[in-house]
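Encode chain A's predicted structure.
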Amino acid sequence: MKLRKLDLGNKLIVAPMADVSDAPFRKIAKDFGAGLTFTPMVSAKGIIDNEFHALRIFAFARDEKPIGVQLLGNNPEYLASTVEELKRYKPDVIDINCGCPVEKVTRHNFGAQLLDDPILMGKMIEAMVNSAGDIPITVKLRLGKSDGKINILETSRVAEESGASAVIVHTRTKDTKYKDDPTWEWLIKVKDHIKIPVIGNGSLFTPQDIKEMIEKTNVDSVMIARGALGNPFIFNRYRALIENGADPGEQSLEEIENVAVKHTRLIAREYPEAVATIKARKNILWYFKHLDGIHQFASIIMRTKSVEGEIKMIHEHVEKLKQNFYPKDDRELIDQKFKERVLFWLNE
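Encoded structure for chain A:
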């Protein structure tokens, strides 16, 4: 897939994820073959106001390219100014989020709330495009506000007519959030409706899911979000599937162990010790979510007070797995819990 001068070929895209897609996460994804990663969603106003937190979120190193930045905003003038500021850092893609369904975002008329106002959305996109120069502007969309108010054909056409280089379509509505099955048939309709690239998104957890979405809907690429949590292997497994016709299958226990430790050490290098210890926990648990003993492991990791302690716990957990120490978990139940809520080990 091409976005202006950026050619991703058949490589996949990693979604911007709040408090997840930081530099360590992006590096691991790139190591396993992701074509484009995004920094976490960042406030346009925060960048213009030089807020430290906002500037910290979108910071990236030169060797991370190609990389995208996703903005949260609803003011065309602010967004235009933000894009002008971002150009100094030379991201490869700038995305505007019109799809986040989280209430703390939508109540301020950001994210998926903008789906109800295609006219404003068009003004925002046009302002960004006029400021962007050669940097492609993409738009993250959902199908609509609710099942009774699906307007993805209108919003995708507005994006195209306003100068967007591509649309990313999450195949659920705002009200559905992440519940229920995604509705892929709308991707087919969007592909028939507009000429710019369409990127599919929503509940892609295996290489077979990705291949099926592309073959059934003819989307130009896909964006992986939850499917990449503790699972950077999805990127090279997909590449093997389409290049060699066969998925090499799930990674070995030793490879999971090695990558989990590497990821944890990258987090330790990126953050102060106390922060790194907290941030590493969820990533470690995601790596082992499909193996037995995950709830026992979670109770230990959540009490561990240092990164080195966490790494020691990883090695000890792997040894227990090799010895079949744990009783068999209900894999289907845990998988369903993860899909409903990625922090599946926490009580409601």
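The two ends are 41 Å apart (CA to CA).
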